[in-house]
Amino acid sequence: MKKEKIISVILTVGLAVGLLGGCSSSSGKGDIPEQSSAAESVQTEASAEKTQNSNSGERKKLVLWTWAPGQFNKVQEAFLASHPDADWQFEEVVVSVEDYLTKLQQGYASGGNMPDILMAEMGWRGSAFALDIWENLEAEPYDFDRSVLLDSTISSITNAEDQVIGIENALNPAFMMYKKDLAREYLGTDDKEELESMFQTYDDYIEWGAKVYEESGGNVVLFPGLQDVSNMMMQQQRNINNVDENGDVNVTGKVEKVFETVEKLREANACGNLAQYSMEWSNSFADGSVIFFPGASWSVTYWVEPYDPEGVDNWGMFTPAGGGFGWGGTCYGIYKNSDMKEEAWDFISWILLTPEGAKYMKEDSGFFLPVKAFYDDPDYTKGTRPNFGEQEINTFMMEEIAPDVPEASLSIYDNLVSDSVNMVVQMMAADSGMSAEDAMEEFKADLQAKIPDVTIK
């Protein structure tokens, strides 16, 4: 069976490698860098070429804008190999996750070129779903039946009209990862159940963080940085919508709790001073300076294995204080004015809704699809990875964490709230005198400047 050629147009627009699993949010504001203008120029040429090739009998191009080029190469190849009559070629145009939302907004507003397949990351999905650019996948000709998916995913793929407009590419259960050697040395055990008993509350992190710092002479900390904890706490509260029934941004309760905890962790020296996703942060996976790393299913293949290749059987997972949570997530949809709708749906539905696609997604990316029927097969959730030794991490993720993950409640301000929280937490890390009260004032001022006409409570 002849495999069709897959074309990738790689445009470097500040791709954030750490966001491959969709674990952060885009600000979605301001001007797009000059590189994005170059991307639009190339995309315009690509669209014109697509039309010209179609008219001349050459293969059409199915265009995807993505911040993770090549992430699903094997799945794409498998799809085309199983569909020998496909009369199109796949084309990727790389747009950084930070610029993606703005590029969608500008492209549609200007009547410019748009991709056939749309992506939306969880952090700014509420804003993306508010754009009138998506096909209703429950309408003809798609006729998608939402009941085939796990109930917990529905709220994150529906718009304000309760229409399914995207298909989730994975469940993203999140948990606590730990280094076994450091846990034995400084915590007295590397046993999963014992660690879960020791760390029932965030106060336990604070207490043990102080002990670890003192015992190690300041050479070892519990967490890489304050952002790791603040992001975990925000995700554990993602079922609380950022907007109340009056349309006001009402986040004081959950954000205040985050800043208070961050202040205590900082005072206890429980966290290092590493910015999340920085090179120093990445290096800490192997350098023996950090015990705990909040992580999600995608963290195994995108962080642990690449950055600690020698750490075979030196990693473990357990349920963190506050419970398991969802972290990140990307969905795929179809642009409503695309002339490749049928082809786009054939591709999306095959890779995300069929057993064949599920096989490649699991083996190549470590992603588990949220399709109910797949979990009838007990082997689907089984599996180990070298760094985690004999721990059945897939079973742990899907049976102990995933069932209790809070559903995502989306709003158009989610990315702005997250950006402001991250900015203030970085300020707290840099300024040891900044209190939780100071942080709250700074947060409100920063968020209000972004949305001056909205009441912030």
Which bin fits the share of residues in helices?
Answer: 40-55%
User: What class do helices, strands and sheet pairing give?
Assistant: alpha+beta
CATH topology of the largest domain: D-Maltodextrin-Binding Protein, domain 2
CATH class of the largest domain: Alpha Beta
Spell out the helices and strands N to C: EHEHEHEHEEHHHHHHEHEEEHHHHH
Total beta strand runs = 10
**How many individual helices?**
16
Query: Any idea what the CATH architecture of the largest domain is?
Result: 3-Layer(aba) Sandwich
The largest sheet, given as strand count, sense and whether it forms a barrel, is: 4 strands, antiparallel
Number of domains in the coordinates?
2
Q: Please identify which CATH superfamily of the largest domain we are dealing with.
A: Periplasmic binding protein-like II
Measured distance between first and last alpha carbons:
60 Å
List the uncertain runs. 1-48
* Overall pLDDT metric: 89
Shape label: globular
Radius of gyration: 22 Å
Strand content: 5-15%
